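User: tokens in, sequence out, please.
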């Protein structure tokens, strides 16, 4: 009579039997709350499973209730948390400043750590305010207005490589829309390379001073 092998659990069976969502299971592994598979074939032994189930309430509390989310959902959460306006681009800016880790992507768009978003407290409000101000994204026409430029002048800045979009999103009819970051516009307004009073006072129909900017060389 042969002895049946002890049960083991795969990466779908384990969370299903333990009552965890897949994202909770993945986060628990990342936090070291569930060890790496200890059985061949990327499976977990019954002993490991039983130990995890015995601690399931503590595991659920540690992984939180918010999955990793896209930028829009992250910004909605922060707006609700702090009862303030949170501009598009804030999540990316928080990540850029080291305050909000990225956790992979979905359909080519970054996901942001839901556990970190849950732990934002009142003391973090200033971080969010600064990120919202600096990371605020503008389409081309709005960005030109922020700089006080005609759109043709704006195109000269892009041509010269003095301003680069930080994100591309899909617009109507599958068009690509380039978005520009507020902090980059602010930096440009402080640039000594541009005579802003001359640019702003050039009347319509006259050649813009920005037209004389050299075109940025394209890397081969």
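Assistant: Sequence out:
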């Amino acid at each position: 009579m042969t002895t049946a092998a002890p049960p083991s659990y795969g990466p779908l069976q384990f969370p299903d039997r333990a009552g965890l969502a897949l994202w909770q299971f993945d986060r628990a592994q990342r936090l070291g709350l569930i060890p790496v598979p200890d059985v061949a074939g990327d499976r977990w032994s019954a002993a490991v499973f039983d130990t995890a189930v015995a601690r399931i309430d503590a595991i659920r509390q540690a992984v939180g209730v918010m999955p990793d989310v896209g930028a829009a959902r992250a910004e909605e959460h922060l707006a609700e948390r702090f009862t303030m306006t949170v501009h598009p681009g804030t999540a990316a800016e928080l990540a850029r400043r080291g305050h909000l880790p990225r956790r992979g992507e979905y359909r080519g768009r970054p996901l942001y750590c839901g556990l970190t978003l849950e732990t934002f407290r009142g003391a973090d409000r200033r971080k969010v305010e600064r990120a919202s101000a600096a990371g605020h994204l503008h389409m081309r026409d709005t960005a030109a207005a922020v700089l006080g430029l005609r759109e043709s002048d704006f195109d000269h800045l892009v041509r010269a490589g003095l301003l680069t979009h930080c994100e591309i999103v899909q617009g109507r009819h599958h068009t690509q829309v380039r978005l520009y970051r507020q902090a980059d516009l602010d930096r440009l307004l402080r640039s000594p390379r541009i005579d802003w009073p001359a640019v702003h006072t050039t009347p319509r129909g006259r050649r813009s001073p920005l037209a004389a900017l050299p075109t940025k060389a394209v890397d081969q």
